[in-house]
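thread: overnight batch results

M.L. [08:02]
morning all. the overnight job finished for the chain we discussed friday. pasting input first so we're all looking at the same thing
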Amino acid sequence: MTKQYLLRPIFLVLALIPLSANAATFFSPEPSASSTSSVVTGAAFAFGQDGFGALDVSPLPNGLSPEQVIEKFAARETVFDKARSNYLFRQTVKVQTLAEDSNKVDGEYQQVTDISISPEGRREEHVVFAPQNTLERVMMSPADFQDIEHRLPFVLTTADLPQYNITYLGRQKVDELDTYVFESKPKVLEKGKRYFQGKVWVDQQDFQIVLVNGKNVPDDVRRGHEDLSPPFTTYYEQIDGQYWFPTYTKAEGTLHFAAQNGALSQDVHMRNIVRYTDYKRFRGSARIISTGDVKSDTPETPATPPPPKK
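M.L. [08:03]
and the structure it wrote out:
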């Protein structure tokens, strides 16, 4: 690592804040004592009232308890998580830095990737568009790409529940959807792992996540190694009449990097968008039963019977 890089932020965790004033909630993560040197502003957010009803905090109907709802939607998310691994889709990423004085783009990273599945069932990535990376004030880190693949399209399965404190907040109308609203916080921050912290909206009919609003934690705030994560919002759409898929994530905020080796601290205004589109269920010609045992998914065509004797 050269001195030139020590004078500027070299790690950026791609994370996103809401599209616009579009939901009746507010999330502001509490900063830790160790995060005072490298922080994010412009990324705590408030939604407006358009499209969102008031939060109903009355007891759940039909004798349901919050714990029962959590168990039901986590079980449904578990089924969806397995199903999504059998879908092909296109992932479009755009990361921009904006000049503070003009608000114009002064650096950009783009990549369009088709996510497919090999006949053997392996996930494959095929980059179909990748213009020259012009980011200068930040660099994409491995954590960015892990977030894009695993954490921005947030799924909360039954296996994930023991890692989180899930608090029921109430019921809320989101456009035409009736939803349950929960707050999610990790119980313990294990070294080397990252978690989602924020709010989750679950459709009351399908028991699936339809909107999340929060951030990935913890941040790495060590001088010279900052890996900052501003809040993000991910929107979901019902694609096939059965499952709600993550389709759009967006953020815009300012990352504050600490001063290094006597240099001035640096603020970087970011605007980032991730789209997940063109979902199609994988239909392979073969499925793996066990090692060396491959069976076709296409039913065998029965032999044509001989014509009857006259």
